[in-house]
User: What shape does this take?
Amino acid sequence: MSVNKEIKRITVHILQAMKARGEKISMLTAYDYSMARILDEAGVDVLLVGDSASNVMAGHETTLPITLDQMIYHASSVVRAVNRALVVVDLPFGSYQGNSTKALSSTIKIMKEAGAHAIKLEGGVEIEESIRRILSAGVPVMGHLGLTPQSIYKFGTYTVRAKEEAEAEKLKSDALALQEMGCFALVLEKIPAKLAKEVSESLVIPTIGIGGGQHTDGQVLVTHDMLGITKDFQPRFLRRYLELFEAIKGATEQYIKDVKAGEFPNETEQY
Assistant: This one.
């Protein structure tokens, strides 16, 4: 059943109100017009134009190679499809780290050229200057803690983060700091469910989990994973709602067979 289409456009204030009344927030990734239109019509609350496009759309091993201009291309395609969802765009690797002036110019480029509604960046207090500068320009910021894929070479692995007490304490203090800076929401990726619950309950702003258990204020998955378009990625936190890899492959094989046999097009499929 799809959500009421009459509802007004989702804003950061609506997400805040959803947390206050205990209504869970749904979020999925989108990178192109056709998919974004389907997801928006289904009633998803937030669409993330993720730098995961580097993996699922471009075939890179990490999120690092995708450029700012490529993110803008994906984001502008998504924005054109959307009537209801809040569109959040990842600032890609190299477009904000260590330079708040660059962070602001990257953000302004995304907002002007793609028409996005908010941006997301990875990290805690170490990127405070960038976050404050972006917020001072009136752009809503979503934070991201836990497993931060842009730092994969520092971590060396995609395993669960913040299992040790020191890292868990830093994550808790970073979460509070991001809220104090003015972030409107926070993604918590691949951390113990108990820690995600504790962080979510300590914050006024909503938390969105991916591999963070059931007690965050919302959930996000990569759409291609959720629909089973990707085949080999099978983390514990992923629920596949369809197996589209096999379905699309089967349909394509049938099309090829019909073309080869001269059965497509038939007499009713021509002018």
Residues 3 and 43 are 5 Å apart (CA to CA). The domain at 12-240 is CATH 3.20.20.60 (TIM Barrel).
